Amino acid sequence: MDLALWISAWALAVVALFGGVSKAFVSKEKLAAVHGGGWTEGVGARSIKVLGVLELLAAVGLVLPALLDRVPLMVPVTAACWVLLMIGAMATHGRRREFGFVALNLAYLALAGFIAWGRFGPESFTG
Predict the structure, then answer these.
(1) Residue 10 in domain
(2) 15 Cβ partners below 8 Å, 6+ apart?
(3) pLDDT score for 12
(4) Are the C-beta atoms of residues 55 and 108 closer than 8 Å to each other?
(5) Residue 126 forms part of a structural domain
(6) Are the C-beta atoms of 115 and 79 separated by less than 8 Å?
(7) E-assigned strands of the chain?
(8) Cα 49 to the chain's mean position, in Å?
(9) Total number of domains in the chain
């Protein structure tokens, strides 16, 4: 189970890293032009950048605290926060009837939920 949690955390960290880089460093106009970028309509550029920074922090928080053995509790806390972020993403894409993205966000939510459950519970770093 520990290996599955590590693989899940790394996979989700990669997703968060790519999403964070694109939101934090790519212009709103370029994001809006790509497939699935329509959600940026009605969202301020600063809000998109904030989402990007949050995703970058999630990428770090999903693996680095455990790797460095410094406040490893941050791993499941980060995963739980990712669940909340994905609920928001699912609501946003659902309003736009982008159900493929809703399903993708649901998969990310499930992965984050697995990490949070596993690291808070049976495979806790503190237990």
Answers:
(1) yes
(2) 108
(3) 98
(4) no
(5) no
(6) yes
(7) none
(8) 14
(9) 1
Residues 6+ apart with CB under 8 A from 73: 65, 125, 126
Does residue 125 belong to any structural domain of this protein? no
pLDDT at 122 over 90: yes
Residue 104, pLDDT above cutoff 70: yes
39-49, pLDDT tens digit by residue? 999 899 999 99
C-alpha–C-alpha distance, residues 56 and 20, integer Å: 5
CB of 109 closer than 8 Å to CB of 87: yes
| Within-domain flag for 98 | yes
Range of the domain at 20: 2-120
C-alpha span between 2 and 21 (Å, rounded): 28
Q: What is the token pair recorded at 63?
A: 């693996």
Instruction: Say how many CA atoms lie within 13 Å of 14 toward its Cβ.
Output: 5
The owner of tokens 């370029």 is 30
